[in-house]
Specification:
Elements (H helix, E strand, L loop, with lengths): L1 H8 L6 H29 L4 H21 L1 H13 L3 H18 L1 H51 L17 H58 L10 H9 L4 H5 L14 H43 L4 E9 L2 E3 L12 E3 L3 E9 L16 H35 L1 H20 L1
């Protein structure tokens, strides 16, 4: 591995064997990166498969030529890998989490809301249908009651009305009511579909912009680090490296490293400075805010499912409401007042009418097309939880990623690392004398 890294980090290969070794290393690297790039574009950013393939192939060929021919580009590319463990890498992972939540959880919430609306639509349709059908009960009762009135009038043979029946026309409007309810349901469905498409498109575009910006910033950050490393001897130069230890031993000044242990850090150690600890805590707090927002969306998913499940079960338990129409009719004939002098007053009873009509109001039906509520997907929760564990890990690994970037830059530019070591040694010597 040391030999392979030596060939990879050399500015110019020494012979043909190292040249072919470098080409194979660059080829293997570009194949792996190209595959990951295709999967990232197709699965995470949701580009079409043919565009993803074309972009992945073009990117792989360009990357192969760049890595094989340009030595500083190999250094920048190598530093991008640990830079993924820094703030920019967290942005990429966070955008992936957002895309997973939007693609998998948001449609589930909308689906459960649609289930609740379907139940409300079903209840409205069945109840209105039952109410409209109950007019048939009124019509039957009116005709029988009208027949009783006709028979009563015929029995006295004094006055005969034209017709004793009532006319009902409510049933003629049932088709219009059903049509209006159907149109209202379709409009609500179209509105929800439009909202779902708008949310998906907005998040997809936002995720692509964030992902593209993050990748460009990764390259910029690595290039910026290398530029400062090669132009500023003071930049990120406070580590006790092996070269510094050897130099101090040669100069017989090992006490300089012991006395300055509070200001210097070993790049391979786990010690964090106070500033590095505070930065980690701030980043962890910001990440916690993003986690809380994610948990709100997850809680909405569970809440929508519980409400939809409860509404479906309660709607199935709706009892049939019985409706009873009772008609009691009693007719009598009374003698007019001016005849009271001739005859004693009395009332002559006629035919009585008493009957009850029963009907049932139905609020739910098995014929309603109600989609069952969709429970939250536990695999999505697991993936999001694992990604956030990685995000929290990168918060505390960011410092070590910066140290690894410095080590990579030092291995690519060994002569400049020697200059930086001598500069740091002279600085420590000057401070010790003062």
């Amino acid at each position: 591995m040391a030999d392979l890294w030596s060939v990879y980090s050399k500015p110019v290969p020494a012979n043909g064997r190292e040249l072919w070794t470098l080409f194979l290393q660059c080829s293997c690297t570009t194949v792996v990166i190209g595959g990951l790039f295709y999967n990232w574009m197709f699965a995470s950013l949701e580009y079409s498969w043919h565009l993803s393939i074309a972009m992945a192939v073009s990117f792989s060929l360009l990357l192969l030529l760049t890595l094989f021919l340009v030595h500083p580009a190999r250094c920048v590319f190598s530093m991008i890998m640990p830079t993924l463990g820094t703030k920019q890498g967290r942005k990429l992972l966070l955008s992936t989490c957002i895309m997973i939540v939007v693609v998998n959880i948001t449609p589930n919430i909308i689906s459960n809301i649609k289930t609740i609306l379907q139940i409300i639509k079903c209840i409205c349709k069945n109840s209105s249908e039952s109410l409209l059908n109950s007019t048939a009960l009124l019509e039957t009762a009116s005709w029988q009651f009208g027949d009783a009135i006709q028979e009563t009038v015929h029995s006295i043979n004094i006055y005969r009305p034209m017709n004793g029946h009532f006319q009902f026309s409510l049933l003629n409007n049932s088709a219009l009511i059903y049509q209006q309810m159907h149109l209202a349901g379709e409009k609500i469905g179209k509105d929800f579909l439009a909202v779902e498409i708008l949310v998906k498109d907005s998040v997809r575009v936002g995720n692509r912009l964030v992902a593209g910006f993050s990748v460009l910033y990764l390259c910029f950050e690595s290039t910026w680090y290398l530029k400062n490393y090669l132009t500023n001897l003071r930049f990120d130069n406070f580590y006790i490296t092996k070269k510094l230890e050897h130099l101090a031993v040669e100069k017989k000044a090992a006490h300089l490293l012991v006395g300055s242990s509070k200001n210097l850090i070993r790049p391979t150690g786990l010690k964090l400075s106070r500033g590095e600890v505070m930065l980690c805590l701030v980043q962890a707090m910001l990440l916690t805010v993003a986690l809380m927002l994610m948990l709100v969306v997850v809680a909405m998913d569970h809440f929508a499912f519980r409400v939809a499940d409860t509404v479906v079960r309660r709607a199935a338990q709706f009892s049939v409401v019985p409706v009873t129409l009772s008609i009691k009719y009693n007719a009598k004939i009374g003698i007019l007042p001016f005849l009271l002098r001739l005859f004693p007053y009395k009332e002559l009873p006629l035919q009585d009418f008493e009957k009850s009509y029963n009907r049932s109001l139905i609020f739910s039906s098995a014929h309603c097309g109600i989609s069952p509520p969709t429970p939250p997907n536990p695999s999505v929760m697991l993936v999001v939880g694992l990604l956030f564990c990685i995000l929290y890990a990168t918060v505390f690994l960011e410092t070590y990623a910066h140290r690894l970037c410095r080590k990579i830059a030092g291995s690519f530019f060994e002569s400049w690392e020697e200059k930086r070591t001598h500069y740091l040694y002279k600085k420590l010597s000057r401070k010790h004398k003062e």
